[in-house]
Amino acid sequence: MDKALWVVRDKITAKAAIDDLMADATTRGIHDVVVQVRGRGDAYYASTLEPRAESLAPGGWGQGQGPRGQGPPDAERSAKRQPPNGLDPLGHCVRAGAAVGVRVHAWGNVFFVWSSADGKLPVSPEHLVHRHPEWLLRPGGARYLDPMGGKDWEGIYVDPTNDEARDHTLAVFTEIVRTYRVEGFHYDYVRYPQVTYASSPEDHAAVTALVRAGAERLRAARPGVVISAAVFPDPDTARERVLQRWPEWAREGWIDLVCPMAYREETAEVTRLLAKARKAAPNTRMWGGLMAYPGERERLRDQVRGAREAGCDGAILFAYDPTQRDLLDVFAAS
After folding, report:
1. Rounded to an integer, what distance in angstroms lies between the CA atom of residue 32 and that of residue 104?
2. What pTM was computed for the model?
3. What's 158's DSSP letter?
4. Is there a contact between 243 and 191 (Cβ–Cβ < 8 Å)?
5. Closest Cα partner for 125 from 39, 52, 55, 62?
6. What CATH number corresponds to the domain at position 191?
7. What are 151-176's pLDDT values in tens digits?
8. Alpha-carbon distances, residue 316 vs 130, 202, 277 (angstroms)
9. Range of 115's domain?
C-alpha cells in the first residue's frame, strides 16, 4: 500500500526543514511527498508569473514579471532562472528528494488565491489580487476582501468562469512542471467555495474546463507527469455543494490519481466515504486522505486499515509535522 505525505508550505521555508522532511520520509519507507508550492497565489519556487511568498526571505526571483503576467520569452531563460538570494524551496525539495529516493509532487491551490486572518491584502503589487481584481470571485455582493464576508468564506478565489484567470493559473502550473523535475502536479481547491458563490449550478463546467485543459498542457510540458487532485470524498457532496465533478475527471483520464479527503474522527465513516469514492472511480489510482489527529496513534492505525479495506491503492496523511513523528511511525508501519 502506497504511503504519502501532504506537506504544507510553512514546513519548507528552510533548507534544514526540507532535509529533515526527506529524512523523515525515506527512513520510514514513505516515497511520495506532496509539497505545497502555490498556497495563496504566490510562489515557493522560482517563478516568472507570481510573487515570491511573503514567508520566504526577501527578494524576487531575478527575472521579474512579464507583461500581464506572461512568462519568460523562451524555455532556456526559464531553465536558467535562479533566486537572487534566499531559498528556492521546490528546487531544494526536488534535489533532496532525488538524493534519498523520495518523489516530489508539486501542490498548487487552484482557485483559492488569498487569505489573511487580519484581513490584510498581499504586500506585493504583483499579486493577482492587485493586478487583476476583475478576475476575483465576488459572491452575491458580499465584501469579498473581508474575512467576515460570509459564513462559508475561506478567502479570496478567482472566478472559475473567467477565461483569463484559468489561463493564468494553468500557465503557473505549466511553468512549474516544465522547470522542475517533479513526479507530479497536485490540484487543491479545484472547486467553488460553495455552490452559492456560483452564478449557476452549471458553472461546474468552468471547473472541469480547467482540469481538462490542464491535462493537455501539463502532459505536454512534462510527459509522464502524474496529475492528482485533492477532492471532497463523497462525489454527491462534491458535485452539489462545490461543483467539483471529479468522477468525470477520473473517467476521462484528465487526472491520474485522486485523493479523497476523508477527514473524519470515526473510522467507520472514513471507511464508508472512501468506499463510496472508490466505487465512483473504480479504475483510477486512489490514495485515501487521512487526518493526523495529534496523539491519536490507534485512530490513525485503524484509519489506514479502513483505507485499505475501502479499496484504496494508498493513503496520504494531512499533514507532515516534525513534532509528531510518533504519528509518522504509526502511519508508515500500519
Report:
1. 6
2. 0.91
3. B
4. yes
5. 52
6. 3.20.20.80
7. 556 789 999 999 999 999 999 999 99
8. 35, 31, 15
9. 2-333
